Amino acid sequence: MVFKRRDKRPFFKVLWELIWPKGGWVRAFHYVKHRVRRLPDPPHRIARGVFAGVLVSFTPLFGFHFVIAALISLAIRGNVIAAIMATFFGNPLTFPFIAAGGLKLGHWILGSHYDEGVNHSLMATFGGAWDDLKHNFWAMFTDQVAEWGNLASFYHEIFLPYLVGGLILGPIAGVICYYLSVPVITAYQNRRKGRLKAKLAEIRDKKAKKADEGGE
């Protein structure tokens, strides 16, 4: 195939680049920003897609961010590609701040409190939930009894507060990014149109000069 990679990347390298892209997340951010600005759609539609992607990146629905962002973008008549690319607002550099903000706000709204000095650590809570999932999967085929304690702790201590807090912070961040995106995308598209018009005018002038020289 014409576009097939000649040097096939090892699986672990592909997996690692999903966590830390080649060139780092700063370079990846500038790449995504550049691609979003060049999308062939009116600025307000692209900005709506950005809103959807940023909103979803504040939720703990990992693995479904692309799908949910695309559905929200379709619902509000935004650009789906912009929505998918904007989910990269949530990345290893920003997730610690997003998670901390969502958890604290969510626990405050729910009237609960999460203290790693008293409760399980964040990673231990995730690990315990994963252990329960594995155990319960094998319990379907054995005589073992399903266990839900760690999953319940994960739901009440992490997932629910994160979701509640994220559904407050996500729209706020999305609206901010929307109003920042519209003028930036508009200015970029106008500048790009100006360059294209100038280039077309230059081509027409060259053709006109050649026609005049040929007529002589």
Into which percentage range does the β-strand content fall?
A: under 5%
Class from helix and strand fractions:
mainly alpha
Mean pLDDT: 78
Oligomer: single chain
Number of helices: 8
Structure overview:
About 3% of the residues have low confidence. By secondary structure, the protein is mainly α.
Essential attributes:
mainly alpha; about 0% strand; about 220 residues
Secondary structure layout:
Blueprint: H1 11-19, H2 24-37, H3 43-56, H4 65-75, H5 80-86, H6 95-110, H7 122-139, H8 149-215
In short:
The longest helix is centred in the last third of the chain and has 67 residues.
